[in-house]
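Re: folding output
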Amino acid sequence: QVMTDPPRAGETFRIGGLVVEGSIKRGQGTEVGFAVTDTNATVPVRYTGVLPDLFGEGQGMIALGKMEGDTFVATEVLAKHDEKYMQGTLLVPQPNGKLSEVSVED
C-alpha cells in the first residue's frame, strides 16, 4: 500500500511484511539496511538500533518510521514469529498528530 498510496511527507506510519532474503546489509555500529516485501511491492528500509533476536531474512516484521525518498527510515522494528508479534509497544499516529503507545502482545 505504501507504493500505491504513499503517505504525506513527514508522516509517521507502520510498515510490515517479510524481510527479503539476502537483503540485510550491516553498516557501522548499529546501522542496518534491508528490504521488506508484501509479495506485491518491495521497500528498502534503513534502521539504526538493536534489532530483535527473532529478526531475520524470510521472517515477518513490522516497523514504525517515515519515508525519506524511496527508503523507509525506521525508528522501531519488531519481529514477527509463528504468526504472533513479540510483546512490546508501538507508537501509533493519532488524528490530532500526536503519537500514542499501543501494547503488542503475543
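--- second protein (sequence, then structure) ---
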Amino acid sequence: CIAAGNESSNASFSYPGCIEGSQFIVTVAAINCNQTCASYSNFGPGADFYAVGTNVYSCTLNGKNGSGTGTSFAAPVVSGILLLRGYPVSGSKILCKEWTKPIALR
C-alpha cells in the first residue's frame, strides 16, 4: 500500500499515489470522522481504497503517544486489513479489491 498524497488533488496524477504501470500497488486515500474524503487527501479513480487518516492515534518520538493526520496514516490501516485477510503479497490489485469487498473501512 502507498499513501495517495495530501495535496487535495486527483490521485491519478499526483505523487506519491500515482505510480504508472504497477498492478501490485494499492493507493490509499484518507477519510475523516464523517466518512467523507478528508479535505487534504488526494482522491479520485487513482485511489483504490479510503481509510481513516484524520487524527489517528499513534506512537510519536521518544516513546510517547499522540495523533497524526494524513494519507500516510491511512495506508497502514489498509495494509493491516489486507494482511489479516490473508491477501497474498504477490497478488494483483484486482484480486485485492475482490478480497476486501465484504469489508467497510469506517
